[in-house]
Amino acid sequence: MVNYYYDGTFDGLLTSVYESYYGIEPPDKILRCKNLQQSILDKDIDIVTDSEKASKVYEAIHKKISYDALRNVYHAYLSELDEIDTYIYQYLRFGFKKGKSVDLYLTSEEVLKVHSAAKKVRTESHLMLGLLRFRKLNGGLYYAPYSPVYNITALISDHFVRRLSDQFWIIHDTKRNLAAVYNMVECVLTDLPEELQHQSLNTDDCFEDLWKKYFDSICIKDRINPKLQKRNMPARYWKYLVEKQ
Amino acid sequence: MELQKKLEILSAAAKYDVSCSSSGSNRKNTKGGLGNATSCGICHSWADDGRCISLLKILFSNYCVYDCAYCVNRSSNDVPRAAFTPQEVADLTINFYRRNYIEGLFLSSAVTKNANHTMELLYESIRLLREEYKFNGYIHVKAIPGADLALIEATGKLVDRMSVNIELPSEKGLKLLAPQKEKQAILKPMNFISSKIAEKKDEIKVFKKAPLFVPGGQSTQLIVGATKDHDMNILKLSENLYKKYNLKRVYYSAYVPVSKNPLLPDLKTPPLLREHRLYQADWLLRFYGFSADELLDERNPDFDPQLDPKANWAVNNISLFPVEVNRADYEMLLRVPGIGVRSAKKIIMARKVKSLCFEDLKKLGVVLKRARFFITCKGKYFFNYNMEQLLIRQNLINGWETDEKKQEWEQISILSLIPEKPTLQDKLMSITGEI
């Protein structure tokens, strides 16, 4: 088995695809980090990320397959699911063969895997547009900690740039320590410095209390249905919801 | 009165209005402004009753001059009363919005003093939000029946969605439970709004920057179970509303018993299943190409509680089935139980490159548990038995697997052919002839 290892960036993944065509040997698997258990039958190749090669692949996907395929690949990449990199690779191989009709092969394994991973990412990012909660800190900064299952910070930040364009805010993925910081001019993705990571959130914000009161009084008591509530709003997201504290 | 107390009273008073969606409008943010609308709509939370919270849903005031029997805010009801000021409404909206709690505002009101006065108050709150606070988020407002049309038009220019609630599906019900209201008064603003929306649509074709008028369309609400109306009456009414007034949505609200009145049915729990069936049928009208006449008729004026409307239709029209998945057109695929809009589209796509078998359908998200009775794949029928109406019906209700376990027909053994010895009772019966 030939394994490619890349650094976990999207460019790295695209470089791996490039190498699979022009390098020494096409891989059986593409992986993000080294397996601790190595088999003597495996041949490991480290891929050095090269932005030029990556952009060639990027352009090729756009032109030879479709823009949708590019979107699917990027979203599937953000899912960080097991083996997804290998499936993306197979999807692209298949795609370069079939052209833009690749997304019609809804029943073939490699297409199905990439589509379902991409869909999971899109579903969660849409849900998060609603479930993200900004806490107003004493300095007037709006700070939104959350821990999504998939790496969606880059996907959702644009929405808030458009929407909350006249306030300073930070969206902080506490699981990956990745933050989108907005200063009313531009939004940057970065990791938060240590001292900012442990914000004391005990602000006495009266609107948080008002929101909790509203949340309770809008419910019709004759129709209580916790199962439906949990189906729509999985409990794993409750940790950062003001109304569920 | 404290703001918190007001919010509690006036949100509790608004909760029986089920409309919550924030879709249909894609109002852009302005320079230096706050907020925008997303055309697909966004839910921000789900209350303990499982219903989504998308908008800050409040009444401006619950001091009402009307005394409608079904309504919690009727003037004769002994509930705490309160009224916001436009400033308070704006403050709440803006601050909730900045924390991403809500998608916008849903503002309704009880009729205080008279319709015009109420509509003016609503207009003023929304004007304040849009003009002073430069708020571009979603706003849904109620048009108060009886208010001046000029006032309704001015409000319509500022909001994303407007609605007039019909509440009671028939004029008879209206006379009985809300004698102060008239059907014509309710339909008049609806008619006005829909004609204005159509007008604006034409205008936008010519001038791209023509000012908006209710870009999210209008909606209404019908109460289910407070009157004796059949499902058929309700569904036909909705069908008409969709056709005639081009409504975006009709909401159905299971009647929650809020008062003891001899004119009202004595319900222990709200008729949630009935509400659910109506929503299913409503979807069939809007997205599946069904008409109300196909789903219900004079002989069956109510939905079957055991079977969803689409499956019920399919069983009653079994002669149209089975359909071949690889050849059927989109409209027919949509009519197969277990195939929805999404999976029908996927089938159309996938069969362009490959003829589909049952395994493939599972991957496309078809619910084979229901669909298998009605389809063939490459000419093969999946269900092992005859296409018999009753058998399929039973299987749809109980599920095939469970049925197999408690099989009703047993293996015939030689012993079962020997008749049982007649009991004493049998002998007596044979003498007296009484069964």
From TrEMBL, chain A:
Domain of life of the native organism: Bacteria
Stored InterPro entries: DNA_repair_put, DUF4130
Upper lineage: Bacteria, Bacillati, Bacillota, Clostridia, Eubacteriales
Protein name according to UniProt: DNA metabolism protein
Domain called DUF4130: residue spans: 83-243
TrEMBL record, chain B:
Superkingdom of this protein's organism: Bacteria
Keywords, comma-separated and alphabetical: Iron, Iron-sulfur, Metal-binding, S-adenosyl-L-methionine
Record InterPro entries: Aldolase_TIM (IPR013785), DNA_rSAM_put (IPR023874), Endo/Exo/Phosphatase_dom_1 (IPR051675), rSAM (IPR007197), rSAM_sf (IPR058240), RuvA_2-like (IPR010994)
Keyword Isomerase on entry: no
Listed name of the protein: Putative DNA modification/repair radical SAM protein
UniProt GO MF annotations: catalytic activity; iron-sulfur cluster binding; metal ion binding
The keyword Coiled coil appears for this protein: no
